[in-house]
């Protein structure tokens, strides 16, 4: 099975056909992020067979040149947004080192970290503007597919909307890590010091899987 097959199953469903019509109109008439061809970039970079970790965000960055189809990630050429600054701080505090100081999380994806948002598109300058258009059904179904067909996946759920996905995951088969969101509004209320990266590697080690080089 590949992500392409799994995504195709969703694209054949009525809810997705409605979502697709909405997106075609939005991309035609407004500034939408990420670029249309990068909507599924997270799946392209993280092979299904290699999947070890799922990190779930809310929706893409909504300012120019930031969103690239990977949750929390930005191109190396731009300044890291505040949530990403806090993620990198926590990696360094937790592990002692960080391989993605430039903010491009592609190396994580290539090691088997699926970096997805609950909603995969957004209008320029309007956070949550594509909420309740169908993406949540899509990402819930992806999570449920992973839950059913894989074992020993680490799910890292940051913030309340992400934490609600716990209901879709069998904690006997998988390892779930939750905390508040890394955004500046909440990071000091329990994101800093939560050690999700070492926790992930400890679990992967315990089931004889390669650790992630964060």
- Report the sheet-strand fraction: 5-15%
Overall pLDDT score? 96
Strand line-up across the major sheet: 3-2-5-6
Q: How many individual helices?
A: 8
Helix and strand sequence:
HHEHEHHEEHEHEH
How many β strands by DSSP?
A: 6
Helix content: 25-40%
Question: Cα distance, first to last residue?
Answer: 27 Å
Biggest sheet: strands, sense, closure? 4 strands, parallel
Which structural class do you get from the secondary structure elements?
alpha/beta
Low-confidence stretches: none
Structure description:
With 214 residues, this protein is of the alpha/beta class. It has helices at 3-11, 14-29, 41-45, 82-95, 106-110, 135-149, 160-163, 196-206; strands at residues 32-33, 53-57, 113-117, 122-123, 154-158, 175-179. The strands form 2 sheets. Strands 3-2-5-6 form a 4-stranded parallel sheet. The protein has a two-stranded antiparallel sheet with strand order 1-4. Helix 7 links the parallel strand 5 (154-158) and strand 6 (175-179). The model has no long low-confidence stretch (mean pLDDT 96).
Short account of what is shown:
The protein has 214 residues and is an alpha/beta fold.
Describe this protein with a few key phrases.
214 residues; alpha/beta; single chain; 11% strand; 6 strands; two-stranded antiparallel ribbon; four-stranded parallel beta sheet; 8 helices
